[in-house]
Design goal:
407 residues, mainly alpha, Rossmann fold, 3-stranded parallel sheet, globular
Length: 407
């Protein structure tokens, strides 16, 4: 039997979860500063019964005593709540349903004084920007929106596509690091993210984690750091970017975090988190707007809609891992009992891998990438164990519906 090349450290055998529609090719997301196109990636785990970690975590939520968890939250908030004019927690976000829900409930139900912080999208959608403004104005929040060097952001995004086919790599790093930096600067003791990362099969985050214990929030040797698949030294020497203009994308140094007592918490650990309920809550409290059209690559209208590059990002995950946006959305809704697996399979078959043409030419113009060049890169980054060029087109070897060329 022919041994096919396997890229990105993915499992050579392709399997699909028996409960949702996710495959074992899904990388576990975590900021990786040494990231390159062929770096080893940890992927979601399947148990001996063929069920993924995310589904098992979802099952475990049914046995959680949520009243007890909320009491733990109240004790945590009582410990840190301030009434002296200072912020007592930070909620990062862009005005999407999750950041709206987290910040609003902390302020208006639990009496906290959150500072919201935003690492803005690369290219705002009109409705995404409106949701952001409604969050701040109708929701009533102070906000720090860090508008990094646009020229550098544009270059790093272009390099991320060319070198690792990851339009969002640099954005994700900045988004992850903005909250710790602001917490340190303003001496705010708590950072609240929304959903626990275990919802997606990532390592379960401790419900009480010190910022200084989270290694991905710090760097110790800048010479080992890569952005957009390029070393910091090369960015400085070849691309003539000043180190000062790169620091916004990097986490704070280890020595700063070592003095910190800032805690990182997931509100989804304490409160039962359902994305659809967060959406309804956001509509009620800040008039949250969905997209006026279906998101290409999936069937929904309200997930990750503030950045025009979002759709392109999910298309690249389909190219590299065989996992498109419909797979992510359907898997989550199956776990929340809003879809059956059969319905999820049908939606994946219909929408996964749909090309995001709506904003494609605008994005290519902005990044100064020729559309044909992007398509060439897509073919370059396909892993042979996932893809087969047959009958004049690329097709997946295996699909959850059993319609792959090798199924």
């Amino acid at each position: 039997m022919e041994m096919l090349e396997v890229k990105y450290g993915l499992p050579s055998e392709i399997r699909f979860c028996k409960k949702c529609v996710m495959s074992n090719q899904r990388p576990i997301s975590a900021p990786e500063f040494k990231h390159s196109a062929n770096s080893n990636k940890r992927t979601i785990n399947f148990d001996k019964e063929g069920v993924c970690d995310a589904c098992r975590y979802s099952e475990s939520k049914q046995n959680i005593q949520w009243a007890k968890r909320e009491n733990e939250l109240l004790q945590l908030l009582d410990k840190h709540r301030r009434n002296d004019g200072h912020y007592d927690c930070i909620v990062p976000g862009s005005g999407g349903k999750d950041s709206v829900y987290a910040s609003h409930i902390l302020k208006y139900k639990y009496g906290m004084h959150p500072l919201t912080v935003t690492w803005p999208p690369i290219l705002y959608t009109d409705y995404g920007y409106k949701n952001f403004m409604n969050w701040i104005v109708m929701g009533g929040f102070d906000n720090i929106s860090f508008n990094r060097n646009g020229k550098v952001m544009k270059l790093l995004t272009k390099l991320s596509i060319e070198n690792i086919l990851h339009p969002f790599q640099t954005f994700i790093l900045g988004q992850k690091n903005i909250a710790p930096k602001i917490a340190l600067k303003y001496d705010v003791p708590l950072i609240f993210y929304g959903e626990n990362e275990a919802e997606y099969g990532n390592p379960i985050a401790d419900n009480s984690t010190s910022l200084r214990d989270q290694s991905y929030h710090s760097i110790s040797n800048i010479d080992e750091v890569y952005l957009g698949g390029v070393s910091i030294n090369e960015l400085i020497n070849k691309y003539k970017i000043d180190l000062c203009d790169l620091m916004a994308f990097l986490p704070p140094p280890v020595e700063e975090l070592s003095k910190s007592n800032i805690e990182v918490h997931y509100l989804g650990y304490y409160l039962k988190w359902t994305p659809q309920e967060a959406y309804y809550y956001s509509v009620e409290h800040i008039d949250f707007q969905t997209r006026p059209f279906r998101t290409q690559g999936t069937y929904s209208k309200y997930n990750s809609i503030d950045d025009k590059i979002d759709d392109l990002h999910y298309y690249t995950t389909y190219i590299k891992f065989g996992i498109g946006r419909a797979t992510y959305d359907a898997s989550q809704e199956i776990r929340n009992n809003h879809l059956t697996r059969e319905e999820g399979i049908a939606l994946v078959k219909k929408f996964d891998g749909e090309f995001p043409e709506k904003y494609f030419n605008e994005i290519m113009d902005y990044l100064e990438i020729k559309p044909a060049r992007f398509l060439e890169l897509c073919d370059k980054f396909r892993s042979p164990h996932l893809w087969n060029f047959s009958n004049g087109k690329w097709q997946l070897r295996h699909t959850v519906s059993g319609g792959g060329t090798d199924d």
